[in-house]
Design brief:
Elements lengths: L6 H4 L7 H7 L2 H13 L5 H17 L2 E7 L11 E3 L1 E4 L5 E3 L3 H5 E2 L19 E5 L6 E5 L2 E12 L8 H21 L8 E15 H5 L2 H6 L24 H16 L4 E6 L5 E6 L2 E2 H21 L2 E4 L13 E9 L16 H16 L1 H7 L21 E2 L1 H14 L10 E2 L9 E2 L11 E3 L4 E3 L9 H25 L4 H16 L11 H10 L7 H4 L6 H9 L5 H54 L5 H33 L4 H28 L10 H6 L2
Helix pairs in contact: 6-14, 9-10, 11-14, 11-15, 12-14, 14-15, 19-20, 19-21, 20-21
This protein binds adenosine-5'-diphosphate and magnesium ion (MG).
The site of magnesium ion has 3 residues, from loops.
Length: 705
């Protein structure tokens, strides 16, 4: 019998949930905590002391020895510094374990060792972590034992955000405030706040540990820097939704269990398009918690893989020639009285509030397409965006037939009299049920697709934090709501209906160029988008400067999401990150080519040369062997030359001062030199004896997990 997993019993076991607080805290303290959680404000130090003690007692009962302020610096991954609860021995020599409200609320990591883009010089290193009461504390079990993790925001001494959470929280408040202005205009007096909800679908690859450890590129860069294609890729379309193999299944089972304990609502799992690629999706939740949970998911994916003698690759493009990994960021906005502002209802044409919200979102996305594009860029994602598998680097919105038709009517006549309906799908088999059909088909090629009652932003990279895309989404929608509310509040109640119609028509007319329902992967779309004047920002480094355009600074400062200094520091960090990442990749290639691949090829040429001599001595003509030797020699020479060129390019790049120019040099010169080295080496892999090739092949890695 298989052991029974009781999901209800384990769910949230390792989380200090509001439920546990309710049980363990005096009523008045619990109420105070809830109030701050829901409506902001500050918890008194006395109350924080009580919460800290309850949290520590719970954690210690569960075996925790340490606590940490868990935060998300601009490295894109999480950071933690562990402190034990050990305080001091009592008179009898027994250790007292303590955790105070002050320790719960505030931490003081050395800010100078995290990227700050010049906001913090090393001599003025003070930085603070501040407890994010809206995201529950949790226990992490790892090699160090059990640690109480307290989600925190990370700021400098002077109050600048040094992390991804602070701007996200600011953006959530901004969009909430503006959304409430909109619903008030439609007579809603109950709602007090609006909450952005997010459900991120996470893609990942699994490879066998033994093979992983033989590949320095996977170890250092998270992706293969060399590798000839396997005889089979994804062309048979047999992996997507295919039967989950035993070993992978047992990994998924463990992962789910771990995530459920951590309060993550792991919901969907399946094989993805590329061989060895999989996906996990949780149920959507408040943006802030979804961002934290996505970090927990990524960490758990890696940790659980190690237990199964596997390695989890979150890189956006671990293998050339097959699909890379992304993260579909599903986003919607709901009020605390239970209305999803993105729900069109049965007859969207009559739902004026929905149409206004939609018009605002289209305006926001069109106005700030460049920022959205930037928010989904990271070094790895450059291999996907614009390549032939992921959405192109052009932002456009898919609305589907039903809404597109409504928009068309509104633009043309100012009213949408009719609305396309879904109807019934007849299966044609009497024993099968007929199915109710959605009013709209799906479009898998759109970067920003309306999917029923939410938008799905599909550009985001698999390894990246989803904090930035959601910060941008909240910010740009807040701005559009604010501008609409300014106009409509001015109009007054008696003119409201007329004014709202005019505004919807105006926004839709002005911004309809952002709507595209066709095949986003086609060349025609690239040309058409150009004609429409939509930006097509092809790489991460080209996207960086969108953060400090006048339009962007105005937006962020208006809603207090970023200051200009914070934006400038982020730009600096992005250029540095890009340069450092490509440098590591280049050095890894140089290392592998010099110490592993070229020596192996040279050994192989010696075997070939010996064979040529032996065959000739035996009185035969070694034509084949000699041709092969020549071809190998030619590729070897090409590789050696490319290796020297890459070394020179990388040295030149590394000597440049950090910043934009250096980042562009890495993109334009060093990356090209890397490609030039990869080409002959991949060709060599196809002719050199597998016995002597020093690296596991694509086939070994993708088909033998
Ligand atoms: P798909 O068919 O595209 O995979 P799903 O319905 O399975 O779409 O949803 C994918 C993700 O979207 C899940 O994480 C789901 O919880 C989330 N999601 C569903 N509804 C909403 C919503 N209203 N707001 C935000 N995310 C949502
Ligand atoms: Mg989806």
């Amino acid at each position: 019998m298989k052991e029974i997993l009781n999901v209800e019993a384990i769910f949230g076991e390792n989380v200090f949930t509001p439920g546990k607080m309710k049980e363990r805290l005096p009523k008045s303290v619990y109420k105070a905590v809830k109030r701050v959680m829901d409506y902001g404000g500050e918890l008194s130090l006395a109350d924080a002391d009580v919460v800290a003690k309850a949290m520590k007692d719970w954690a210690v009962e569960k075996g925790a020895t340490h606590y940490t302020h868990w935060f998300q610096p601009l490295t894109g991954i999480t950071a933690e510094k562990h402190d034990s609860f050990v305080a001091h021995p009592d008179g009898d020599g027994k250790m007292i374990m303590e955790f105070s409200g002050k320790e719960l609320i505030k931490g003081e990591p050395d800010a100078s060792s995290f990227p700050s883009g010049g906001l913090r010089a090393t001599f003025e290193a003070r930085g603070y972590t501040a407890w994010d009461i809206t995201s529950p504390a949790f226990l992490k079990e790892s090699g160090t034992g059990v640690t109480l993790c307290i989600p925190t925001a990370f700021c400098s001494y002077t109050g600048e955000a040094l992390d991804k959470k602070t701007p996200l929280l600011r953006s959530m408040e901004a969009v909430s405030e503006q959304a409430i202005r909109i619903v008030r205009l439609f007579g809603n007096t109950r709602a007090t706040k609006a909450v952005a909800s997010v459900g991120p679908e996470q893609e990942y690859f699994l490879v066998d540990k033994e093979k992983y450890l033989q590949r320095k590129d996977l170890i250092f860069a998270g992706r293969t820097l060399f590798g000839a294609p396997a005889p089979k890729g994804q062309e048979m379309e047999d992996h997507y939704f295919g039967v989950i193999r035993e070993r992978i299944g047992s990994y998924m089972k463990d992962l789910n269990e771990e995530l459920w304990k951590l309060g993550v609502t792991a919901k969907t799992q399946h094989n993805e398009v590329a061989p060895a690629q999989h996906e996990l999706a949780p149920i959507y939740e408040t943006a802030n918690i979804a961002v934290d949970h996505n970090q927990i998911v990524m960490e758990a994916m890696k940790r659980v893989a190690i237990r199964h003698d596997l390695r989890c690759l979150l890189h956006e493009k671990p293998f050339a020639g097959v699909n890379g990994s992304g993260k579909h960021n599903n986003w919607s906005l709901g009020t605390d009285d239970g209305i999803n502002l993105l729900d069109p209802g049965e007859t969207p044409n009559e739902n004026i509030q929905f149409l206004l919200v939609l018009a605002c979102i289209l305006k926001a996305v069109d106005t700030h397409a460049d920022l959205l594009r930037q928010s989904a860029s990271d070094v790895g994602n450059d291999h996907r965006l614009g390549a032939n598998e992921a959405p192109p680097a052009i932002i456009s919105v898919f609305l589907g037939e039903q809404l597109e038709d409504v928009v068309k009517q509104l633009v043309e006549t100012g009213i949408a009299a009719t609305c396309k309906e879904g109807g019934i799908l007849e299966t044609g088999v009497s024993t099968l049920p007929d199915l109710e059909k959605d009013a709209t088909d799906r479009n898998r090629t759109s970067p920003f697709a309306f999917t029923g009652n939410k938008f799905e932003f599909r550009m985001v990279g698999s390894a990246d934090s989803i904090a930035s895309p959601n910060t941008i989404l909240n910010a740009i929608v807040a701005e559009a709501f604010c501008e609409a509310a300014d106009v409509l509040e001015q109009a007054g109640e008696e003119n409201f209906e007329r004014a709202v119609h005019d505004l919807i028509k105006e926004y839709l007319t002005k911004h309809q160029r952002i709507i595209f329902n066709g095949n986003g992967y086609s060349d025609e779309w690239v040309a058409e988008a150009k004609r429409r004047g939509l930006p097509n920002i092809k790489s991460m480094v080209e996207a960086v400067e969108t953060l400090t355009t006048d339009k962007a600074v105005k937006l962020f400062e208006k809603f207090g999401i970023f200051t200009r200094a914070e934006l400038e520091s982020r730009e600096e960090i992005l250029y540095e990150t890009y340069a450092k990442t490509i440098n590591i990749e280049a050095l890894t290639m140089i290392d592998m080519a010099s110490k592993q691949i070229l020596p192996a090829v040279i050994r192989y040429t010696r075997t070939l040369a010996d064979t040529v001599i032996a065959v000739r001595e035996a009185g035969a003509e070694p034509q084949v062997q000699s041709d092969l030797l020549k071809e190998t020699g030619r590729l070897l020479a090409e590789a050696k030359k490319a290796l020297e060129a890459l070394k020179a390019a990388d040295e030149e790049a590394a000597a440049m001062p950090e910043g934009k120019e250096q980042a562009f040099f890495y993109k334009d010169v060093v990356k090209e030199a890397m490609e030039a080295l990869r080409t002959p080496i991949d060709a060599l892999e196809m002719i050199v004896d597998k016995e002597v090739w020093p690296l596991p092949s694509y086939a070994d890695m993708m088909f033998e997990v």
